[in-house]
Amino acid sequence: MIPYETYHGTGNDFAIVDAENHVPDRGAFAEQLCADIGVDGVLFLALEDKYSPPRAVMTLFQPDGGTAEMCGNGARCAARWVAERTGSDEVMLDTQAGTRRALVDGEEVTVEMGAVSFHPTRVPLAGDTELVEEVVGGYEVTAVNTGVPHAVAFVDDVDAVDVEEVAPAIRHDERFPEGTNVNFAEVDPDGEGFRQRTFERGVEGETDSCGTGAVAIAAVAARQGHVEHGESVTVSPPGGSLSVTVEEDGEATLTGPTAHEYADATEETPIRRIGHGD
Ligand SMILES: N[C@H](CCC[C@H](N)C(=O)O)C(=O)O
């Protein structure tokens, strides 16, 4: 009986399992739990609370049973989980993309995401040049790594994009040897920022929010001169609103709300979830 809790960050939802629980096959466990309760991934967190600030090793398993190096919304939820257990509002997260500092202010969590990179070996890309405003799968995309690979396409209206239909061609394009997450972004007609829709690798579908995707959109927007480096940019996926900053040197932060949904579920008595926010 493996216990877990569920959290979401702007509708991107996760089951969190304390790594003290031995799960022999984490991939199979995640595949089953994601299918059973409809979360976007399972975060295994190994808390090291003897350090100051406390740290946790974070490993994300996705619905396809594989891992991803980083997850922006997952990191925000993980930081809150650590803060709730330790009382510390500063948390270090050890991810496969590197160690990240997070600041927890109640439900609001900021993660220092490290430096974004357009470099072909970092994205990674098959070729040895950056992929900037090139047509892939019928869309003009720019590729950037924000902890995981992302393709960003600016469009006039994100609601007009049939994401599940058009994203897979980009997600599987041979220029991305490890695949890519796919983002569609639009200048928000009601605000200063951008609207976001994201198709996630590993979920193999659209999610209500993607933190590394929001950072990717802000990074590409800054590179293309739509926004200033260092300025706080609002990025709004269907599930809520995120704030992103990208400095001149690529260092990025991601801020937004988190929600603790359910505690004390186990794989044997799972929570049946019927949708977000209900
Ligand atoms: N939802 C996550 C991204 C998970 C990464 C994953 N889909 C991949 O790169 O395979 C986020 O908030 O950043």
From TrEMBL:
One of its GO terms (cellular component) is cytoplasm. It is found in: Cytoplasm. The active site is at residues 71, 210. It holds the Pfam family DAP_epimerase. It comes from the Archaea. The record marks 150, 200 as: Could be important to modulate the pK values of the two catalytic cysteine residues. It is an enzyme of class 5 (isomerase). Pathway: Amino-acid biosynthesis; L-lysine biosynthesis via DAP pathway; DL-2,6-diaminopimelate from LL-2,6-diaminopimelate: step 1/1. GO terms for molecular function: diaminopimelate epimerase activity. Substrate binds at residues 12, 62, 72-73, 181, 200-201, 211-212. Residues 257-278 are annotated as: Disordered. It catalyses: (2S,6S)-2,6-diaminopimelate = meso-2,6-diaminopimelate. Its main location: cytoplasm. Transmembrane segments: none annotated. Residues 269-278 have a biased composition (Basic and acidic residues). One of its GO terms (biological process) is lysine biosynthetic process via diaminopimelate. Belongs to the diaminopimelate epimerase family. Catalyzes the stereoinversion of LL-2,6-diaminopimelate (L,L-DAP) to meso-diaminopimelate (meso-DAP), a precursor of L-lysine. This is Diaminopimelate epimerase.
